[in-house]
Specification:
Length: 281
């Protein structure tokens, strides 16, 4: 005798819910609650410590990746030390993942970085070790500011980084109070960066240079065309016979410096210009 039981959709719903619950519990035991959605945090900002940049951007967005890229002598080190000093002075727990071991302790001390709040991870030019260190720091939690310094790595090597690393970092940092800043010579984080800062050195006019050089540089800066939305530009320029620079007191940006900011999610795009205040070394 064969019994045939016909089940309609309504009778299958409780069974499907039960099976789903069992699967979720089994996955949670091994990998954590992957189906659990984190509570969305309001947008919070960590100041960079550079008044001109904070005036426009307010700072680095928490719970997101910020990429800082540009060639050598473009101001990356000044911005890094300023951000570390501002974060550590606010008793934020900071971590610096230094892929090339180029972090200078004396410059950091002069900048006002508190080493009591800083974890320095040296990776000896091992890119995989640097990414694994960042992954552990993000998933471990407890850090307010994590800086991944890839500025001295070859651009060819950075372009070969698989995008799954950046997506993993973006997922791990989302809705957390942590800032992840990445310094690179070329843009490589792409869409995973909520904000990208491109630092450009427009000229090399140092304190004590002739006034004629400063005047010609100022004229060249004013003749530049404005960028199109959604990009934001910070232009460091000089008064006619004065040499201007960043207000960072430990290291000076080159006098003609452009910071190009691409603001993606969760920030809205806008166009503004700010000039660095004159500062004497």
């Amino acid at each position: 005798m064969i019994s045939i039981v016909l089940l309609n959709n309504q009778s299958l719903q409780p069974m499907n819910a039960l099976v789903k619950t069992r699967i979720q519990l089994q996955i949670a035991d091994r990998f954590g609650h992957v189906f659990e959605q984190r509570e969305k945090r309001p947008l919070e900002i960590l100041p960079t410590g550079v008044a001109e940049i904070d005036q426009v951007l307010d700072g680095f967005p928490r719970g997101a990746i910020t990429e800082i890229h540009g060639t050598a002598s473009c101001g990356r080190t000044s911005l890094l030390l300023s951000a570390l000093a501002a974060a550590s002075s606010s008793e934020e727990t900071c971590a610096l993942v230094d892929c090339s071991n180029t972090f200078d302790l004396s410059s950091a001390a002069d900048a006002g970085v508190s080493f009591d709040c800083l974890l320095w991870v040296r990776c000896n030019n091992n890119l995989e070790r640097a990414f694994k260190a960042v992954d552990l720091l993000l998933h471990g939690g407890g850090f307010g500011f994590i800086f991944l310094n890839l500025a001295d790595m070859p651009a060819k090597t950075l372009r070969r980084i698989v995008s799954t690393w950046w997506f993993r970092f973006r997922r791990a940092i989302e809705n957390t109070p942590t800032v992840l800043a990445v310094a690179t010579p070329v843009a490589c984080v792409r869409s995973c960066a909520a904000m990208a800062l491109e630092l450009k050195c427009e000229g090399s006019v140092w304190p004590g240079a002739d006034a004629f050089v400063a005047e010609e540089q100022q004229r060249a800066l004013r003749s530049k065309s404005e960028p199109s939305s959604p990009h934001l530009w910070l232009v460091a320029s000089n008064d006619r016979y004065e040499i201007g620079s960043s207000t960072v007191n430990h290291s000076h940006f080159l006098q003609a410096l452009t910071v190009h900011v691409n603001r993606e999610r969760p920030l809205a795009g806008s166009d503004r210009t700010v000039r660095f205040a004159p500062h004497s070394p």
